Amino acid sequence: MSKATRTSNNPEIEAIIFDIGRVIIDLDPSRAIAAIGAASTLAPDKLWAAVQKDPLWDGWQEGRVTPHDWYENLIARFHTPISFGEFCNAWNSVLVPKLLLPDHLFMQLSKKCRLVLLSNTDPIHVAYMESKFKFLRFFPKRIYSCDVGASKPSLKIFRAAIRAAAVPANRILYIDDIRQYVLAARRIGLNATQFRSRRQLEAAMRQRSLLP
User: Residue 9 is inside which H or E element, if any?
Assistant: First the structure.
C-alpha cells in the first residue's frame, strides 16, 4: 500500500518497539536455578516462580533494589553459599546465547523504521546484554524497566518507549510475547502483535509492507 492510499485507520509504520525476552532472546530459567537453588527441595519451575513472587522482585525489576541486595536476598532465602560473581554468572545464564530472531532481520527493518527495545529487566541482565549481544547496535534507543522505574504493563514505561520512538503511537508497531502487555500497548494507541514465532512475525510484517 502506498503512502498516498493509507488512511488514519491503517497508518504507515515508522517505528517498531521490540520486547526482548522470548522475542529476541530465549530464556531458560532452569540454567540459573541449577546454581541459585541448588540447596532447595523445590522443583525448578516452582523455584523460578517463587523467585518472581519474591517481595523484592518488583523493586529489582524497577531499579529500586541493587544487584548486591538482590544477591544477598536470594542466597539467604535459598541457603546457597555462592559468591556474588558466581551469582551473576548464574543469573545471566537465563539468557540463551542463540537468538530467536536474526541480525539480518533487524538490519532490514532498521532501513525502514526506527527500532526501539522495551524490556522488563534488571541491572545484571542489562550489563550482560549490552556487553554480549551485537544485535543491540540496531536499536539506538533501549528502554529498560530498571532505568525507567516502572515495568510493563505500566503506562509510564510505554510512554517512555513512545517518546524514544519519536513518532505518534499509531505509527508504531509493538511486539511482545505476553498477551497482557500486547493488550496494554493497544490501549495506549500502539499497533501491537503477539509474538509466537519468527515465521508468524515475518508474515505479519510483510502484510504491513515492512519486509519484502
Answer: none
pTM for this prediction: 0.93
Q: Which residue has the cell 541486595?
A: 69
Nearest residue to 15 via CA among 111, 162, 114: 114
Give the pLDDT confidence of 154-168 residue by residue, as tens digits: 999 999 999 999 999
Distance of CA 10 to the CA centre of its chain: 26
**Would you say residue 142 lies in a domain?**
yes
User: How far apart are alpha carbons 60 and 191 in whole angstroms?
Assistant: 29
> Residue 178 sits in which domain range?
13-26+99-207
Q: Helical H runs in the chain?
A: 29-36, 44-52, 57-61, 67-78, 84-92, 103-110, 123-132, 145-148, 155-165, 179-187, 198-207
